[in-house]
Structure formats: structure tokens, C-alpha cells
Design brief:
Blueprint lengths: L1 E6 L3 H13 L5 E6 L4 E3 L14 H4 E3 L8 E4 L3 E5 L4 E4 L4 E3 L2 E4 L4 E2 L16 E2 L4 H13 L3 E7 L9 H16 L5 E6 L9 H13 L3 E3 L4 E5 L4 E4 L4 E3 L2 E5 L2 E2 L2 H6 L8 E2 L13 E3 L4 E2 L6 H19 L12 E8 L2 E7 L8 E5 L3 E5 L4 H18 L23
Parallel strand pairs: 1-2, 1-9, 2-5, 9-21, 11-18, 12-13, 12-18, 13-14, 20-22
Antiparallel strand pairs: 3-4, 6-7, 7-8, 10-19, 15-16, 16-17, 23-24, 25-26
Amino acid sequence: MKRILILGAGTAGTIMANKLRKALSQKEWEIAVVDREKTHYYQPGFLFIPFGKYSGNDVVKSVAEFIPSGVNLIKKDIEKVDASANTVQFTSGESMSYDYLIIASGARIAPDETPGMNGPLWQKGVFDFYTYQGAVALKQFFETWQGGKLVMAITDMPFKCPVAPIEFVCLADEFFTKKGIRDKVEITLVTPLPGAFTKPIATQMLSQVLSEKNINIIPDFYIEHVDNENKKLVSYDEKEVPFDALTIVPLNKGAEFIGRSGLGDDLDFVPVNKNTLQHETFRNIFVIGDAAAVPASKAGSVAHFEADVLTENVLSAIAGKPVEAKFDGHSNCYIETGFGKAALIDFNYDTEPLPGTYPVAGVGPFQLLKSTRLNHLGKLFFKWLYWNILLKARPLPVSHNMSMAGKNASLLK
């Protein structure tokens, strides 16, 4: 019997396990998923925890609940991949061979990479909300905080869910307004980008949203260290931003075993063909989701769209056919703008977010680059969709390739 080994039981790995189990004979193919974690987190929900909108019940479930029957779930810690020998070695000293390997090991935060970030104030006055523990600690802090300088800072690119910091400051504006202390809270977004987002049209729209909410933006700021004693962010060019409470996106890196395997770049993400998701040297290795070093967003929607392409390419490789299905970098993200509204962006490698309607031209029902109540409801509904449809690889009426239908292409130069 031949074996497909999937490394990681997060969003991408779970979707692939479900897709491939449906597509391949159990008599001919063993599918195994390796992950040391027992808990599956709905990571987009972490954003809502600090503001009391979600609790643990909304974002925490068992990994095993979403691994389909006929797939072997292996709870082990990975030491490294020996790509030349087609084996994965575990920290226990055991190893496992594979015919095809799918790396879906995600991204992790690395606060220890930035001096002072995980110092004395870590989870006391300096927080992340990219982990469940960090989001809960921030919720507890906000319950008694009486105001001051609230800074939301981004350490470097790339990182998971690039719009989340924008959502965070918008939700903070709503939270402190409803709490009656917004006039006592100065909110600032600090970013290494030249603006609120990576693309001009979306940046213009989002910058206007932040301006209307009296949220400051400090662009082109590259964090060198966090000064715990004086409560300051310090950049490489010695600029300083003071804070009373700091919420930060630490440096994001790939899984540590990627570095030990010699498969990663300097951040331990795995370079692959950005369209086929196939490794350029080891042709029986494919990479999906946040683990892949491709110029797409590290977002759940990307993993979903990639999975359609990757399934087709893995099946082609198994059949000895050319790997020809292509991922175009498609991503879409709801962006919470506060007070029951959200925006929506839809884009790919070549086309930036544009105004318009999604998914049906002229009908929507969702509005692109516009804050609406319906977009907010779409964001909330996505949680149900994630647990019940997406992870289980049930069909959705949305193409993995981005469509220009409904978009205002006249804005492109």
C-alpha cells in the first residue's frame, strides 16, 4: 500500500485529508496526518476574544473531530523531513516513509526573535492576539484598563491574516466607545508598510476608515526592540513610539522542523512553485497554506482555494500525468470595521482588491471595499461555514480562481 503523509492538522492539512480520502481508494492508499496538537483552533475568532464577542467555545474544538474516517491521525512531534530518503523522522526516534508528502505545518509567532518583546511586560502590558492564550490575556487586561496609549504594531511581513491589525483597531474603537472611555484612549497602528494595506486602492479606502475613527497610522516603522522599562517601541532608525498597552504581531515563522530539514527559507517557510504548489527539487512534495513561501496572503481562504488546486495536482502526479492545475493567488477577507459593519476584499497575485460586488456581478450580496452590515454578517457566518463545510471539504459555490465579474476594472492602471 502506498502512503500520503500530511504534516499538520490545521486548516490546510485537515481540508487536504478530507479531499484526498474522498478521492483515493482506501485499499491502495493510506493517508496519515501528523500533528502533536490535540486542539484545533478557529484562528480568525481570536480577534473577537479581547472584546468579549467570542469565547473559547467559539474557537476551540478537537483535532480528531475533523479528521475523516480512514485517515490515520498520528500525534507526534516532527524532528525533520529527509526528502532524499522519503521519510519523516519524529523526535521520539521513530520514522515514517511516504510516497507523497504534503507540508501543511502553518506559521507560528516568534516573539523571542525581537529583543524585549517577550520581556517582563509580555502578556501583562504587551500582548499578541494570534494565539488563544494571548487573546484571552488581552481580554482580561481590557476588562480593567482605564485608558491611555493603545498601540497595535506589526513587526514584519509576512504574517497570518494581514488585515487583522486593521480589524483590531476598528474593534478597539467600538469597544472603548461603548465602554464610555474612547476619549481616554489614543489608538495607533504602527506598520512597516507605507500605508494601511499592501495595495493602493484598498489602502486608500482603509486609511479613510481609520481617519474617520481618529485612529493614527505610523507607516514605515521597522521594530528593532521593545523597551519594557520605558514602554516604547524603538525602530532600527531610532524612532520611538510610546505605549501604555501594546498589542503586537510578532515575527511569523514556519515550523521549526522545516529549518532542520533544510527545506525552508530564512523564515522557515517552504519555497514552491507559486502556481502548482509543488516543490521544485523534490517532486513528490507539495506545500499548502501558511507553510508555503508564495506571494499570497497567509489566510484561511487561501488554504481553501489552494486545496482545490493541490488535490488536482496530487492526483495527476499519482496517475503519472503532468501537474498542470494552477493557483492564481486568490484570497478574500472580510475586514471588521466596527459597530456591526465590515468590508470585503477579493484579489490574487496579479489583481489588487477592487470595488464591486461578490460573488455575483451586480448582485453581491456582498460589497467589495465598502463597509456594510451584510459584510459583517458574512464574517460572523464564516465561523459556522468553517466548522461545518470548509474543514470537511464540502463543496462551496465559489471558484478557487479569482473572477473579475462584478469588479470595477477601470480603476486598474
